[in-house]
Design goal:
about 70% helix; CDP-alcohol phosphatidyltransferase-like enzyme; single chain; mainly alpha
Length: about 250
């Protein structure tokens, strides 16, 4: 199921793993595997990638990074195919992503001896990038009656859906708010009128999609195999500065 109606689709550079994710989800449709199992799979893939980075096995690291990105899309696809949406899966996915991002950057810190403060700035930058992209993307989806599994504002604990426990939802939602809340507030402060203003045109959403997690993972993988590991942290710091340009363009529409 597409997250947007045809007229408002754009080329999502961060969603390159979707075709493979659909193949995986279709293969698992009639099995006992659940979306949570797939989420656990991408966590394992991300941890293996980290080990490979620390041991300078960059091609293998790239493979598991891309696999992580594919599985990250496959859990949602499987939930839609099996019609088993859950807040547990959704928040586990997001919490796992931000923790893995921190682990990836720590591994890069270990192999490049980059100043730890630059690592912290890059981490904050990566999260702000992803938050801005998701912010505008969710607004676009809600505006044009696309997929509404995500909310623009994550403020209240949702009620557990059929098949999941409210306790699990409560715990994961609190973790989500703790880890993502500051970034959500920062982006909302910078452009609080976005939900009521004009949405970004498709071409600009395509450009903005380089801020998506999938593309960020792809950049790390490419830079590793191309021998450009020293440029990973500067890349994320520099590209974060363009957040203000994107927001300024959105406000001028």
């Amino acid at each position: 199921m597409s997250k947007l109606p045809t007229a408002h689709k754009f080329i999502d550079l961060s969603d390159y793993g979707r075709p493979a994710a659909r193949v995986i989800s279709k293969a698992l449709k009639n099995t006992s595997f659940t979306p949570i199992h797939v989420t656990i799979g991408f966590i394992i893939s991300g941890l293996i990638a980290t080990i490979c980075i620390l041991h300078n096995m960059y091609w293998l690291a790239a493979f598991f990074l891309i696999l992580k990105s594919i599985l990250d899309a496959a859990d949602g696809e499987l939930a839609r195919i099996k019609n088993t949406p859950s807040y547990t899966g959704r928040y586990l996915d997001s919490v796992s992503d931000i923790i893995l991002n921190a682990i990836f950057l720590f591994a890069i810190y270990q192999i490049t001896d980059t100043n730890i403060w630059y690592i912290l700035i890059a981490f904050i930058g990566i999260q702000l990038q992803g938050t801005l992209y998701n912010y505008y993307y969710v607004i676009l989806r809600m505006r044009y009656n696309g997929d509404t599994t995500s909310r623009i504002f994550e403020e209240k604990t949702p009620k557990a859906l059929k098949g999941e426990k409210q306790k699990n939802v409560n715990i994961l939602f609190r973790l989500y708010r703790l880890l993502y809340g500051p970034f959500d507030k920062a982006i909302y402060t910078l452009d609080h009128n976005a939900p009521h203003g004009k949405t970004l045109p498709n071409w600009l959403m395509t450009i903005l999609s380089i801020y998506g997690l999938g593309f960020q993972i792809l950049i790390i993988a490419l830079f590793l195999v191309l021998g450009l590991k020293l440029y990973i942290i500067p890349y994320f710091i520099i590209t974060t500065a363009f957040i203000f340009v994107i927001i300024a363009i959105r406000k001028s529409l």
